[in-house]
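anyone seen this seq b4? input:
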Amino acid sequence: MNTSEDHNVLKLVWCSPHPNHYNSYLFEHLASIPNVTFEAVYFYKRLTNYPWTSSFEGSYSIYYLKKIMGIDFSFLWSRRKKRKELFIIAGWNEPTMIAFLLYLIFTQRTFLLFSDTPRIRETKGLREHFRKLILNILFKKMFRFLVTGTTGIARARQLGIPDEKNINYPFATNTDFFVPHPDKKPLSNEPLIILSSGRLDNAHKGYDVGILALGKLKKDDPSLNFRYLIAGEGPDKEVLRQMIQENDLTKEVTLLGWLEPKDLLSFYHSGDVFLHPSHEDPFPNAVLEAMACGLPVIGSEAAGSVIDRVVNDKNGYSHKDGNVDDLYQKIRKVMSLSVEQLNTMSQSARETALQWKVTYHQGVMQRIIQEYSQEL
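predicted toks r here
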């Protein structure tokens, strides 16, 4: 890898809220682009919502903000010199990043913004009008807008960002690590294993909808043989335990607790189908990882990666957000599939994941760097 002292080398700096396994995978590959050095700037080492203990360090440099009164002044001071640097900023409402963006605009330096699917908020009150004014300035001055999925692109247009600035840049999935089980067992006379993973927050992930649908399934046909395994921790753990009991699913449903990234492959390999009944979920990575492992997905139409990747009757099924009856019908449909049909759907899920390998992300970034270099 080249060093930043070489004048022909561009330094790519990605500012992001916290380290995680999918970002570290992406960053490692961005750092391998010729004539590029890479630095990750993180606002926090850990977030309480994501209690990972794994290390996400790579071959690239990492800097953690050191805040005094909410701002890292040393970070701002260290960026004052004119360098051949290209900045990508996610989490742009963080105080240090707000100050940094204002500095970049004032000094006419180039930056990109990254966002998971942005939310459209009503402009009410002085604070929201001021926020909208600041965002309009940012959108006008930014070089490109990286956003996850087609829903993200549509939201960007609603925000008034022109198409020439918007780039579909979904989260990168390690398709070399997340692979199908090499010796998948046949389903005959075995329970259908349904998996879910994510924070136990019903208002976000919709696990309560899944429990109600499976409870209805068991009530209508007690002979159906299935298991539902949910990985994750969160505030609604006890609520879900109560729902499991109330819906007579104590034998079928298991809350597995928190899993580290290294444990995810064996988790996906333990299942036959992945369930993601979430509400307003921008572009969930769990769906991408499950499909890379060859799991057909039953997912909510409110989840961005379900909208973009799941094709009914091909690699899974989508259901109406929050609609227990619709989800019930889709789960029942999967249960009616033959072993051959489910295997075909599994292969299609894997093929879908391979259409979005990390080489796509590298190629997009190389084109951005080329465009940026031409404007220098």
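The chain is about 40% helix and 15% strand. The mean pLDDT is 92. kinda curious what u guys think
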